[in-house]
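Appendix B. Extra example for self-study. Work through it before the problem class; the solution is given directly after the inputs so you can check yourself.
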Amino acid sequence: MTSKRLTSLLHVVLVLALVIFGGFPIYWMATTALSLNSELYNTGQVPWPQLGNLPAMLTDLTQLPLMRWLVNTGIIAVGTTTLSLVLGALAGYALSRFRFHGKGALGFLMFMTQVVPEALILVPLYAMFITLGLLNSLLGLVLANVGFSLPVAAFIIKGAIDAVPYEIEESAAVDGCPRISVLTMIVLPIIAPSLAAAAVISFFAGWNEYLFAATFLRDRELWPASVGLASFIGQYETPLSAVMGAALIFSLPAVVFFLLIQRKIVAGITAGAVKG
Amino acid sequence: MSNQALLERPAAVPAPTSRKGRGPQGIARLMPYAFVVLPAAYLLVFMFYPLGRQVYLSLTRTRLANPNRSEFIGFGNYERLFGNPEFYSVLRITLTYSIMAVVLGVAVGMIAALALNRPFRGRTLVRGVLLFGWAVPNVAAALVWLWIFNERSGILNTVVTGLGLERISWLTSTDMALPSILLVTVWQVAPFVMLVMLAALQSVPEEVKEAAVIDGADKLSVFRAVTLPHILPTLQLVSLLVMVWSIRRFDIIYLLTGGGPVGSTSTLIVKLRQVAFENHDLGMSSAYGVVGLMLALTVAAIHALFNIRRQRSSSR
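Solution. Structure tokens for the complete assembly:
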């Protein structure tokens, strides 16, 4: 009895420690956002969120071009998602339903993209985008991001189609329905939950991306939030509370959506790694 | 269902290459390529052409100011690289960082998975909170951790001085910078390990565990004899994934320390960017990158070998 009580006590302590480690940085982000700068640098930070400072923080926030950054971020993310899903659905369907020459090679190449560091293709893409006139554009960023997110989307979609019985398609094919319509009108609606997971992953790959955006964009007008927020590092003119507020707003959608589809994401990432 | 998708191949679907009622065979045979041509072409243009170009650059003398004009010099960059003591320090830091990220990230993630594998009130909420580090974008994570680590006003040093100890230069001293970055890395990586291992733990067949308990086995031996063998393949997979990601990792290291102080957190990938954009030496930068790629590929190849061996032994 006592040993059982001891184990549950240990369990509670362990869970508590993990919650503090995992949750503290976000708590601290919110707490800092709701602090006065005089506290932060002089009198010492109050270790709990002071909701009364919310209006002041929001006023500081309006001095940042946060809205424009988020719009740019949104454009990159939506572009990355759209292209990844269209190309990923084509590749995923082919990998699941067809047997063809080069299938193994395609799977291998797609797996390879998950090993290649972003930084490794940075310079060649930079040179290529100079030639194509894509250097200082959001479209260029989308094109660069999709190379990494398309294979993940394709693996998730392939896995989902594998689980759909082929007979469902067969009847439609007999009726003379073209193969591409079988995919778009019959298969894709069935795997909608997995498509949503692939969409969320691609969306936030584009939303979070920093290195390409920081290297390829020259106009501040085009900055996404990742580059804009990173520009505060080592800079002390902007109130820290506003910086943390902006970081929180930037993080919130990612946290919400990742929590919603956590299981699907894991299945997708590991499926790609195992079956590639 | 998602638990199963982790490690098992779904049952093979009959591949309908030539079926009745689908027109001439020749066209049916071309069908797969109609689906594949766009994604494949995309990857070739925006991923593998640049990759090949980067490998080629490592064999040339190329300056950043004129990246489209390069002079072929064979293995000159690699000769200079392997003769440079700095390279070995970068390599050592890369390996230390990646291996420690695997050891610590997998340990913390595994402990979290075990702690969450028994039911308790508020478990869903706790799991949500533990996932924060994985879901928060790198740049936002870097900003808050920079503030936590801040030498003068950060919370860590407030605690440290409150205990009567000297302030610690978390990110600005050569002996603390790498451990500090590892702390952030574990915060980001452990949640993913936890999610995957939790799924694996929940797929351990209950009957086998119960049978072992009936046979008089205590908890620890049930874990060793039943649970561990069942989750070991997943554990291997997740370790190798974390290793590859650590070799690739750029954002968080670059944003927290930029590779400093005095190169003490400069991994191959961070160095690659520095040599390209600060020394303007694209050839040498590519050589660093190619070594990084080889390292990641070696790890991936080990993973593939494990996979093949596992499939052989399970198909027997």
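Self-check: The two ends of chain A are 50 Å apart (CA to CA). If your reasoning did not lead you there, revisit section 3.
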